[in-house]
Amino acid sequence: MIDLDFGTKIDARHLRLFDLGDVQFSPAVDSAREVGERVAYVCERILHVGATPIVLGGDHAQAFYTIGALAERYPRLGVLHIDAHPDLYALGGACDAELNHANVMHWVRRMKHVAAIWQVGIRDFYRQPTHQLCCEHDSKIRTISALEAETRGYARLLEQMDRSLPWFISFDVDALSNAEQPQTGTPVLGGLSFYPLLTCFDQLVRDFRVVGMEFVEIGDADHGAHGVAAIAARLIGRYVFQLGGAEPYDGSVYTFAGGP
């Protein structure tokens, strides 16, 4: 396997990479909680054998279950949340007590094992009601807006993330600059461009202890070369190359051994 962007290669035969299939569910029968518990069970089994879970697809509310599954193994955990939305919305009504993809980070920040949350790519414009709500500061949460990431880069993130913590990456593909429906359900103007993000990911997986990741909210669209699914695959590729002990690629040309 050769990565021409980074000039590296790995021998795929040395990778210990396994596809465990899909978490099955019926939208007409199964609740979101039941689906989340199934995802958590799979993650827990993966962690039990000393492996790293990489979850593809699903509603972002599942982050409560994937991150919760890491509690026993990692009693102090950092969460790198890459998203167009902070998922900290509140309306001052009964819906705030129900887990959903708009408020999931409220649930995550209250987890005892979550020591820090960095939110990256945040951008949105919305009306915040204040009736029956209180405003508070949570010292766990730090933010890099999409504007900062695109104009100043990711230096502050990479300098200030706690290197003593293991980190779980929760990536909503609407963080990306080219995320449009039906590739994702909630596209937002602006976003993170590919190469700066790819470079940031490369440094993250080299310099930090990444113990799991998920890529969520990927819509049912044609997966073209520039689509969000393709970008997610390339970002995961940086992690795979790091785990596989990538070596420099010397530009060798491969030809058919039996002829010219």
Low-confidence stretches: none
Kindly report the oligomeric state of this protein: single chain
- Listing every helix as H and every strand as E from the N terminus to the C terminus, the arrangement reads EEHEHEHEEHHEHEHE
Beta-strand share of residues: 15-25%
How do the strands line up in the largest sheet?
A: 3-8-7-4-5-6
CATH class: Alpha Beta
**Apparent shape:** globular
Total number of beta strands: 9
Biggest β-sheet strands, sense, barrel: 6 strands, parallel
Q: What would the keywords be for this entry?
A:
6-stranded parallel sheet; 260 residues
Q: What would you say this structure looks like, in words?
A:
The protein is globular, with a radius of gyration of 19 Å. The protein has a single domain (2-248), classed as Arginase, Chain A. The model has no long low-confidence stretch (mean pLDDT 93). It has 7 helices and 9 strands, in the order ββαβαβαββααβαβαβ. Strands 3-8-7-4-5-6 form a 6-stranded parallel sheet. A 3-stranded antiparallel sheet has the order 1-2-9, with no helix packed on it. It is an alpha/beta fold and 260 residues long.
